[in-house]
Write a structure and sequence with these properties.
The chain has 4 helices and 16 strands. It is of the alpha+beta class. The chain has one domain: Deoxyuridine 5'-Triphosphate Nucleotidohydrolase, Chain A, CATH 2.70.40. The strands form 5 sheets. The protein has a 5-stranded antiparallel β-sheet with strand order 2-5-16-11-13, with no helix packed on it. The protein has a 4-stranded antiparallel β-sheet with strand order 8-9-14-12, with no helix packed on it. The two termini are about 10 Å apart. The mean pLDDT is about 95.
């Protein structure tokens, strides 16, 4: 699988590149202890830092970074970004634009407010039969916005930028959203629908279920040691 990112030639030296999500795990996860005391259990228990599915979801795919610092003051957004005039007609220069409230009429996440739009400065091309799923960076509720998920057939639509709408979730935020902040986490997903098959356990599956559950309850790290697949590194 190849993901091809292209940008305007005049901006190539000014844009941070999309990067593997595994390289952008947040500081709060790195600082989290491996174990913490549980009052309910009256002992130390493992935290989600030791949960491979939790961490692997955060580390999967590619992050789209914010191209410059954004200053935020009680709902007002400003930036100073000195870049050349793009060589491509119709290409954006501003890192942000907006969707009016009417575009999300009745949507529970909108809360009656306009949505941000993180403008795209990279086009993304995937191989035939694959689509691009873009969503909020996984488990990143620390970010002061919430991306609105979308699915784009990027094997066909790859000559224009994919913009990323988001709802600002911290109205009292005052500060800087720094350049390089992950604004979208993207995965290549096959477009062909799976065949859904439903079965009741037979004897072999019941025995296997009991065996696996027993092992998981008896010792830590069973999934990590015996079931977790080795993940290849993204090649750039």
């Amino acid at each position: 699988m190849r993901m091809i990112f292209r940008c305007d030639p005049r901006l190539a030296e000014h844009l941070p590149r999309p990067f593997p999500a595994r390289t952008a795990l947040p500081d709060w996860l790195r600082a989290m202890p491996a174990k913490a005391h549980s009052e309910i259990h009256d002992r130390d228990i493992r935290t989600v830092k030791q949960c491979p599915p939790f961490v692997d979801a955060m580390a999967y795919g590619v992050m789209i970074p914010l191209p410059c610092d954004i200053r935020v003051e009680h709902g007002a957004f400003a930036w100073d970004w000195d870049i050349p005039e793009p060589a491509t007609q119709g290409h954006p220069r501003a890192p942000l634009s907006f969707h009016p409230v009417a575009q999300f009429a009745g949507a529970p996440f909108a809360n009656g407010q306009a949505a941000l739009k993180f403008n795209s400065f990279w086009t993304i091309e995937l191989e035939p039969g694959w689509s691009l799923f873009a969503t909020h960076p996984v488990n990143r509720d620390d970010l002061p916005f919430r991306l609105i998920s979308g699915l784009v057939d990027a094997d066909r639509f790859h000559d224009g930028g994919i913009n990323f709408p988001a709802v600002w979730t911290q109205p009292d935020f005052a500060g800087v959203l720094p350049k390089g902040t992950p604004v979208a986490q993207c995965f290549a997903v096959p477009r062909e629908a799976p065949e859904l098959v439903f079965e009741a356990f037979d004897d072999a599956h019941r025995e296997a279920y009991a065996k696996v559950v027993g092992e998981v309850l008896a010792a830590p790290n069973v999934y990590r040691k015996h079931f977790r697949a080795k993940r290849g590194r993204l090649v750039t």
